[in-house]
Amino acid sequence: MQKKAVVLVSGGLDSATVLAQAIEAGYECYALAFDYGQRHRAELVAAKRVAETGGAKAFKIITLDLSSIGGSALTDMNIAVPDAGALGIPVTYVPARNTVFLSIALGWAEVLDADDIFIGVNAVDYSGYPDCRPAFIEAFETLANVATKAGVEGHGMRIHTPLMALSKADIVKLGTGLGVDYGQTVSCYRANTDGEACGRCDSCHLRREGFLQAGVADPTRYHKL
């Protein structure tokens, strides 16, 4: 029987690559995205597009209102998204976001009788978010195996982070080899409703540098300022 996996799909470059990896590894993939009150809502359209064209068995959007607690430039319109180059944990960090997302993915995985969850976190070319580090993933996997029926019955829940140790250029090369169409993805924190990128935020900077260093043509569409 084909193994099932829940794959977190944001609509960005990394998650599109992870979905392709999971498909290539032979998993029947159930793509999960979140409408959490983010300002860059074009990523939800991109997530649906990536899931449908990338071969996911099903695609689901869970609605949460993290804007009600704020604390991030991505969920609070009163906090400006900075250009690339900020030091420390940036204001685009969304408090506990990956903890919340993985918890819901864990619940869906139990319903599907899936023992595997894929997430595109990265600890090399990233913005300094604490919930993208190996220590967080290891701790969450331990929690998952204590808190679930699957864990208690001995099946074991596994959190896969295949991009954790890769540079953005490595990710671009990997995804290109897997046939990922990065023109379908949206990474920008200030993307407009048409999915066009600002070209100045940290996410845009990391993405552009990744394509440049990989020697792959950048398909990103930028809006005119």
From TrEMBL:
Enzyme class: ligase
Catalytic reaction equation(s): 7-carboxy-7-carbaguanine + NH4(+) + 2 ATP = 7-cyano-7-carbaguanine + 2 AMP + 2 diphosphate + 2 H(+)
Catalytic activity, EC: 6.3.4.20
A GO BP entry: tRNA queuosine(34) biosynthetic process
Obligatory cofactor(s): Zn(2+)
SUPFAM superfamilies: Adenine nucleotide alpha hydrolases-like
Cofactor remark from the record: Binds 1 zinc ion per subunit.
UniProt-annotated binding residues for ATP: 9-19
Keywords from the named record: ATP-binding, Ligase, Metal-binding, Nucleotide-binding, Queuosine biosynthesis, Zinc
UniProt: Zn(2+) binding residues: 188, 198, 201, 204
Pathway linked to the protein: Purine metabolism; 7-cyano-7-deazaguanine biosynthesis
Source superkingdom: Bacteria
Family annotation (InterPro entries): QueC, Rossmann-like_a/b/a_fold
Single Gene Ontology MF annotation: zinc ion binding
Family the entry assigns: Belongs to the QueC family.
HAMAP family (UniProt xref): QueC
PANTHER family registered for this protein in UniProt: 7-CYANO-7-DEAZAGUANINE SYNTHASE
NCBIfam families documented for this protein: 7-cyano-7-deazaguanine synthase QueC
Described function: Catalyzes the ATP-dependent conversion of 7-carboxy-7-deazaguanine (CDG) to 7-cyano-7-deazaguanine (preQ(0)).
Protein's name in the database: 7-cyano-7-deazaguanine synthase
Organism: Zhongshania antarctica
Lineage, top ranks: Bacteria, Pseudomonadati, Pseudomonadota, Gammaproteobacteria, Cellvibrionales
Gene this protein is translated from: queC
